[in-house]
Amino acid sequence: MSTKNITPRSNNEGSIGTKGSVDLKWKEVNAISGSFDKINSNLLKNNLDSDLLIAGSNVTITYSNNQYQISSSGGGSSSGDLPSIQSASPSSNYTISTSTGIEEIYLLNPSADIDVILPDASQIQSGYKFNIKNLSNNTITVLPLASPQQYIDNSTSFDIQGQNSSITIVTDSNSWYII
Asked: Are residues 50 and 91 in the same domain?
């Protein structure tokens, strides 16, 4: 490997050559132990003096003690990363009427065979998921909206039979799909 001697200019910046038509530079870099294998810098800039590390609205980048730390204050949706969990023991039909966050989980322990009626897919953001788990030995029949006709994988219903069986469905804002 070839070596390159670099001498800083008065503004603590130096050129280390070019790559194609791009002028490669370093700025405010200090060698540690006489080697550039490790560097000490609190600025990561390109040759146009623009930041090389840029954070989104929920991400921060801090520099302290010769280390960069990247932190997140959440993400995924405005309501947080975790889905909402609903538990119920219905004795008759159960209607899902909410869609908060990015998905919802329903843990149902019905005392008889029941229907679970889904909300209108056209009123829910595309990509929204429902997870429905049957905690009983009774049958849960999942029904999409009948008017206008919506489907679950081109069917008018889906049965969740047997204890601990489940379904995860997603909408495209027109219908429902098993994933």
From this structure: no
